[in-house]
Amino acid sequence: MLAYLFRRLFAAAVMLVVIILVVFGIFFLVPKWAGVDIASSFVGKQADPAAVEAVRQKLGLSDPVFVQAWEFFKGIFAGRTYSGGGDVTQCSAPCFGYSFRSEQAVWPVLTERFPVTLALALGAAVLWLIFGLAAGVLSALKRGTLWDRAAMVVALAGVSLPIYFTGLLSLAIFSHSLGWINAEFVPLDESFSGWFGGMILPWITLAFLYAAMYARITRATMMEILGEDYIRTARAKGLKEQVVIRKHAMRSTLTPLLTMLGMDLGALMGGAVLTETTFSLPGLGQKVLDAIKNQDLPFILGVVLITSLAVLIANLVVDVLYAVIDPRVRLA
Amino acid sequence: MTAPLHEPTAEAAPSAAEEAAVAGADAKAVQGRSLGRIAWERLKRDKLALTGGIVVLVLIVVAILAPLITNIVGQDPDAYHEDLIDPLFGTPTGSLGGISGDHWLGVEPVNGRDIFARIVHGARISLLVGFLSAVVAVIIGTVLGVLAGFFGGWVDALISRIMDGLLAFPQLLFIIALVSVMPNDMLGLSGTGVRLFVMILVIGFFGWPYIGRVVRGQTLSMREREYVEAARSLGAGRFYILFKELLPNLVAPIIVYTTMMIPTNILTEAALSFLGVGVKPPTSSWGQMLSSAIDYYQSDPMYMVIPGVAIFITVLAFNLFGDGVRDALDPKGSR
Asked: Are B298 and A176 in contact (CB under 8 A)?
């Protein structure tokens, strides 16, 4: 078990280094290859050449990508000092870069926005797990019935609807026409009920999409597993149907879903861009979109890295849970 | 199964026939039914999948003939009709977003462009990106998947690691970031051309591991099958086995995953345009129409409903068709 965990941890660390390198490669080599000057995009569209040169020096943009990635990596643990062009900018650890465009360090802004994204993703995940799994299992058990067909039609519609459309529709119906919900975002420390009210529609819309996906996959996995020999054995030895489903079938159904959950949650940490844009939630996704519109590369880089980190951590947690659910993993 | 190669495939063929005979098909039908034929017959019985397929066909025709259609209707997607707009609120004066005999789906707020014409033209962008990025993914995925499965060893380890890594990446975020750092002019293309090219490449690139994994798994299991061993023992070379024995058997899973990938790609393209990093105006795309509709969801809800429904119908049709194709090609399904 310990050896297994250690192996996974090591793989995650390697992956992190690879991700940092790849991200740097993308953001520094691709524009170079395409003939775009990064230094000027760091400063602003109409920057004077002196300022551009200063930033180039400060950020060490003429250094090879490996050196830049290493400097960045070091900055995460030790902080970083940008000097050049006469003045010095301090970025304390953990330094995930500094935006000369908005004159802000990246990390404090990200930590400020992260809770909103986290609350969105976790709240939605609770909903979609409950409804997705329940719908999927019920459909698999009552295969071919009216319930099964209805649930699968809804699920198919769910995966075919873009979230920004369902989001806008729900805003138009529940918030504007019916006036049931005040869909304005309110920070949690201001008012719990206001915050909760503002999060309900985003949670439901996001959960609807994922519940549909999970229901389809749960149903397919469950049906496949119910056809396995060991389920027949379990039934043949006289176990109650309930026990067969809960103890034998459910356990195997959960493993692939867990992998999905890890990836989805991780990706949502930074990938809830669409939901956050639709509902004007001040989370990480909205920040990265702002950064893209302003060509604020350090923020894009920061969010992409943080998200990758979140995916890595989520996958690590999933690996640990795997070992708990599936004894074969522990023994391997 | 592949075309007859001396004895070895003849050995595999009767077992398939036996299977079919056990499944209760009459002997006459068993004789001449290839997998494609069986799949087509099953697909024909699946009403939902057929409906999906027909809608997909109609959409393709509409996309190809878009300029012709808008010409016949007499609406230019880029023409302004400011006379139809309420100058005070910027919304269309007519009911339901200005729907009329001239403007079948109404007009846009502020400048009054015809929504029908823009939806028809938007179909081109959606389908083009959806199809071509799937093609990119299928090519990379098939080549690397076959290489990994066929050669094994370190080739397999390397390719599998890359696939795992890519699948674990926060894709949408990466795609947004990548598309946004791309310049406006490159490779002799500019404007919409560059954006389409970049979107197709990037979406395709992040999609290949899905196909790659399936192809690798299939190749891995088929490599050890008797008919491959038989071909090998008869002295068939690697390339013969690869192209004549393995690839034909990979066609079914590849088709299934391609049809399932297209709707996802269409959604990704719409999302990118929605976020403002995809196709730029005046070129119309469904995602972009929805994003401008955000500001009018209260005063002109039809403006949001129409592109939303267009995306929904398209993706749903592809999904229905894809599900049908999957069931039809599933060797475990009842024949």
From this structure: yes
- Report which DSSP code applies to B92: B
Query: Does A161 lie in the same domain as A23?
Result: no
> Which chain A residues are Cβ-neighbours of B198 within 8 angstroms?
none
Calculate helix-pair angle for A297-325, A106-141, nearest 10 degrees. Answer: 40
Range of the domain at A265: 111-295
* Residue in A155, A157, A153, A187 with CA at minimum distance from that of residue A169: A157
Optimal mutation site among A33, A143, A165, interface B, most CBs of chain B within 10 A: A165
Provide the pLDDT for residue B22. 46
Peptide bond into A94 cis (omega under 30): yes
Q: Is residue A301 part of a domain?
A: no
pTM: 0.81
Residue A243 lies in a domain: yes
**DSSP-derived 3-state class of residue A99:** strand
* Contact yes or no for A122/A205 (Cβ under 8 A): no
Q: Is A165–B311 a contact, with Cβ atoms under 8 angstroms apart?
A: yes
Q: How far apart are the C-alpha atoms of A262 and A259, rounded to whole Å?
A: 5
pLDDT in tens, A137-173: 888 888 878 888 888 888 888 888 888 888 888 888 8
DSSP secondary structure of A45-98: TT--HHHHHHHHHHHTTTS-HHHHHHHHHHHHHH-EEEEETTEEEEEPSS---E
Query: Which of left, alpha, beta for A240 (phi over 0: left; psi -120 to 50: alpha)?
Result: beta
Task: Specify the number of domains making up chain A.
Answer: 2
User: Is A149 found in the same domain as A205?
Assistant: yes
Instruction: Name the residue of chain B whose CA is nearest to A268's CA.
Output: B170
Which stretches does DSSP call E strand in chain B? 185-186, 189-190
Highest mean pLDDT among A12-26, B14-28, B70-84, B247-261: B247-261
Instruction: Read off the pLDDT of residues B143-187 as tens digits, 9 standing for 90 and up.
Output: 999 989 888 888 888 888 888 777 767 777 777 777 777 666 666
**Contact criterion met (CB < 8 Å) for A164 and B293:** no
In terms of CA atoms, which chain A residue is nearest residue B313? A160
Sign of torsion over alpha carbons A316, A318, A320, A326: negative
Cα(B96)–Cα(B303) distance, rounded to whole angstroms? 9
> CA angle A324-A329-A331, nearest 5°?
105
Residue A166 forms part of a structural domain: yes
* For B318, nearest residue in chain A (alpha carbons): A160
Q: Is A14 helix (H, G, I), strand (E, B) or coil?
A: helix
- Determine, for residues B183 and A36 on separate chains, whether the beta-carbon distance falls below 8 Å: yes
C-alpha distance from A131 to closest chain B C-alpha (Å): 21
User: Among A19, A20, A168, which would you mutate to test the B interface (most chain B Cβ atoms within 10 Å of its Cβ)?
Assistant: A168
- Residues A213, A64 share a domain: no
- Asked if A192 and A179 touch (Cβ cutoff 8 Å), the reply is no
